[in-house]
Amino acid sequence: MNQSPLFNRRGFLKKSALATMTSALGTQIVFAKSLPAGYLPLAFEPLADPNPMVSKHKDMSVLNDKPWNVEAPAHLLDDAVTPADKMFIRNNGLIPEKIDVTNWKLTINGESVKAPKTYSLSDLKKRFKTYTYQLVLECAGNGRAGYVPQTAGNQWTDGAVSCAEWTGVRLKDILADVGLKDDAVYIGYYGQDLHVSKDPTKPVISRGVPIKKAQEDETLVAWAMNGQDIPLTHGHPLRLVVGGWPASTSGKWLHTIAVRNKVHDGAKMTGKSYRVPINPVQPGVDPPEDQFRIIEAMPVKSLITFPRTGATVELGQSVPVRGHAWVGDRAVKTMYVSTDFGATWQECKLKAPKNRLAWQQWNIDLKLPQKGYYEIWARAVDDAGVSQPMVMPQWNPEGYCNNACHRIALKVV
Ligand SMILES: Nc1nc2c(c(=O)[nH]1)N[C@H]1C(S)=C(S)[C@@H](COP(=O)(O)O)O[C@H]1N2
Ligand SMILES: [Mo]
């Protein structure tokens, strides 16, 4: 006969199970006697995959838990280098439960390699030079919640962006070691995560970048983040990291990279995924698939990380305001803020990036003339002269690349 460790023969929680749960919760389950037969307290429901929230800051906001999609409110992103507990999570499938680090392999294959080659983690660490870069990873859907009419997908506000410090080897060094054919045009990654249905035949996500971007100095195959092993949620033990492009190109739980002789056609590379209309469309209009193009470098953008929206300041005090600015493959040249809804702009101090493709810190001390409600709007301009728009940029059916100015509200009392 099957003996449940949790339920007695009538299906009610055993006293021993209840005692364990009480100590795990650190408080008693007040109406435990009234829990119907066969019911577990929600806090102990088995989750679909490892719960990543145990290692996240308590103010992170969960948009979805199957799969996990979690973003940071803007004020949590105040650090120059994003700590793991404040880093957004964007999963398309389930976090792998078993990672065999000792036997983990990276295989490079595809039509355009001379011959496939496989490396262990220690091969990678021993055979190639190690580099560390701070790299911006922004989900292409960051800001989607700002589009009108609303588009399908996770309603990210501003916090699906991070800039951590990644350590690994250059993908271009690995590719040179493998040997490529002349017809190589694209790479595509494969990771170990499972589809939410747990059906291993269903692909989750397999995206990539043109060979030129893959061979940039900053494109890494990384095993460390912020000086430690990459956290499980963010791709342990190996991850492709492609700064400045949709973060969907930075494959987590990486085990294979295919070098392709055509545009990679893995899951979420085709159809309308991570694509925008070639020609501007009227909001709400969804053109046919052949009129879309793949998103490459992300547009210029900035965040106000201090003060947090809703802050109150006293009349006469100067208000220190700061944040970050970044742009796909380029650098931010000038940073402005406005306190009068964009009528006039003041130039901020702006730091150079730590390295190419890192975000840049900006700050300014503001004086606000009288008591009342204000908004601070932040606007970055890149080194090609391209500015963030003050209002909603070109609407698109999948809701990508919203780089409208970030706004916060302040009260002077
Ligand atoms: N294997 C795998 N890699 C992945 C994903 C995924 O679901 N599976 N999501 C991608 C997307 S859409 C984004 S935005 C980033 C999110 O990275 P993060 O969760 O480490 O912040 O990972 C990318 N890499
Ligand atoms: Mo994403």
TrEMBL record:
Cofactor(s) needed: Mo-molybdopterin
Signal peptide: 1-32
Keyword presence, Metal-binding: yes
Domain of life: Bacteria
Cited SUPFAM superfamilies: E set domains, Oxidoreductase molybdopterin-binding domain
Gene3D superfamilies in the record: 2.60.40.650, Oxidoreductase, molybdopterin-binding domain (3.90.420.10)
Residues in Moybdenum cofactor oxidoreductase dimerisation domain copies: 294-412
Domain Oxidoreductase molybdopterin-binding: 94-266
Keywords: Metal-binding, Molybdenum, Oxidoreductase, Signal
Name this polypeptide is given: Sulfite oxidase
Organism: Larkinella insperata
